[in-house]
Amino acid sequence: MLDNAIASIENLRVEFQTKDGPVVGVEDVSFKVNPGETVCIVGESGSGKSVSSLSLMRLVEFGGGSIAGGKLLFDRKEGGQADLRTTDQNLMRTIRGNEIGMIFQEPMTALNPVFTVGRQLTEGLRLHKKLSKADAEARAVELLREVRIPEPERRLKQYPHELSGGMRQRVVIAMAMACEPRLLIADEPTTALDVTIQAEILALMDRLKRETGTAVMFITHDMAVVAQMADRVVVMFRGNKVEEGTVEEIFENPQHDYTKALLAAVPKLGEMKGTDVPSPMKLFNDNTHSTDPIPGTNEPILTVKKLVTRFPVKGGLMRKTVANVHAVEDISFTVNKGQTLSLVGESGCGKSTAGRSLLRLVEPTSGHVEFDGSDIMSLNPKEMHKARQDMQMIFQDPFASLNPQMQLMDQVSEPMRNYGTHAGSELQDRVAMLFDRVELPRSFMRRYPHELSGGQRQRIAIARALALNPKLIVSDEAVSALDVSVQAQVLNLMMELQAELGISYVFISHDMAVVERVSHYVGVMYLGRIVEIGPRRAVFENPQHPYTQALMKAVPIADPRQRKSEKDLNFKPIPSPIHPVGYDAAPSEYREVGPEHHVLTTDSGY
Description:
Keywords: ATP-binding, Cell inner membrane, Cell membrane, Hydrolase, Membrane, Nucleotide-binding, Repeat, Translocase, Transport. It contains 21 helices and 23 strands. It is an alpha/beta fold.
């Protein structure tokens, strides 16, 4: 192996102190990253892949971990090789951000909510690169433009909560790249992004790597991303490296059983060709009882007509409304009992807002929502509270939707206490049953959210949504942060519940292969409107709207020989959804191109 490696991890061992004694996060792992090379580290959540990267940044110590053995060698720009394990924290501060950049998985927790995007972007530039305020701001605008954020000058003045999840993630990527580090550690940087932006970000990182010679350590569970990005692949399982090889070797000739299983669990676009109804995914532990395809019924449970949701943009001294964000613009759809309607589209297209509007977690501006015979829009708060017993939501970021100070069993039982549906031993039994349902050990009931991996937290969120036996679940990107094997289990779990309990889902996602798996109907959203809607088979096998076609093209393929280059992705920048107060939006009009298959004829801006 080359000895000019930028970073080499040798026999790393990391331990965490818990109430039940020390737990080994990483047992014995060694690998190198060479200049201009992308090494992908793959494995499921809990395999130790993030722990190894946090050790290299020496951040693992802030999370209760300690580096118990091994060397972390890093080749600095000036000053030769340093063992980061023994480097003092002051020098680490210089290295972090300046020489090693890090892109974290959850952008909301990686950004500081009280500072503007501009301040957070310029901080590192002024600290490490000694730029003046004006130069740092100019560079920040340039960085935002590189990660394709529309209207970058305006974004600098905004706060993280004013951006969508995908935009926040792009800000985090811009921050990591600001000082042109020698090594970029990317921890699941595209999990929360939709296909088109993911494809762009991957192409962007690839281009920056070629232009600057930066080495990239890319942590992911998405095998399609690995196929797109990696030069070499390190497969981790339960704190150990089980296989390492070039990307072609791993994909075309995997040796370890775990690697084979990981590749088998990848949902592939087009696997469902010719079928009309969802069917469960093949799992590699194949002990789950698979359900037959789920036909559902043709009886509507949710009817949405002409739904519009806008957010005011305040400005001036009097904080008057100067414009509106047209987040959801005139959408209509129906969800049948026991069926799934998926809403897909890029971040910022309004799909999450649409989901929240259904439950009136954000108040729609106008429109009509009928759920199970009652008019949701006319209910008072007390009636709405009762209606929510039957309509639940699973949020995108499980860490933000769980209470950090409550034990998990209390979080799962809370809805039942709120609504008084169960009490005493019945309540305990039901909580235990829900833990079994989402395949979490009952010993986890006394744990807290920070003691779980991302995939495990998401299962708690699902258990909590199921606690009240709802008729409809709005699932907002509920599986986007899970690794393939866990994702397959969670999706199968959701489908099993649908088959048994007749639950209906509004499934909000940007993962086309997953949507193809679970949906009966699919609505494609762009800039607040549904541009195409119809039975899943029609939309996937015969997409009519140019945007749907572009979306299908951007889906990464889990084959290193079919990589997409930047020129294959000719996405138009998304126009701004902000319009002045008096703006009159045209109504959405559709033409029918097949049975129940409609395409928008109003100008959607694409």
